[in-house]
Amino acid sequence: MSSARPSLFIVGVGNLLMSDDGVGVHAVLELQKNPIPGVTLIEMGTAILHGVNLLESATRVLVIDAARGGQPPGTIYQFEPGEPDGLPAAVSLHALGLREALRFLSCGPPPSISVIGVEPQTIAYGLELSPVVGAALGAVIALARRTAVAWLDGTDPTQHAMPLAPGQRASVEMPCYR
Questions:
Q1: How far is it, in rounded angstroms, from Cα 153 to Cα 157?
Q2: What's the rounded mean pLDDT across residues 74-91?
Q3: Does the pTM exceed 0.85?
Q4: Range of weakest confidence among 82-96, 110-124, 148-162
Q5: Domain layout of the chain by residue ranges
Q6: Which residues does residue 63 pair with via DSSP β-bridges, in sequence order?
Q7: Looking at domain 8-172, what is its CATH homologous superfamily?
């Protein structure tokens, strides 16, 4: 049995030019100010295919992104993409797009992926988060830290999860440009 520590990544995805869609990148930028020892922080933005090679060595990936779950803006979700209580594979463009890209383009088995999502208030051109999503950013960062530390310690990170209500589904949001 190997005593090597797992390779853990926190990845911020989304578009910084589209207000709340950039919440994942904003979160990683804040986490970089006080990094978590043993965790690699990546600002992936919307360059998911370009980031696959960076994640091939990961055993666990925590994706932070905007997510639609039907709750008020600023609501924080934590879920496993593609699981029954998580996100259907056909809906994803960010987190599941990352999972699918890793599955098909990497040489080895894909890492385990979890998502912290934030219900957006607005996805429109703008460099700033909406006030309500900006106010949730501290809680997102704290949840990401707790989850990463739990993974590093080998404890159950689901004790920190904020699951959706039964029957509720979230979708990782990517704006439609028309």
A1: 10
A2: 61
A3: no
A4: 82-96
A5: 8-172
A6: 11, 115
A7: HybD-like (3.40.50.1450)
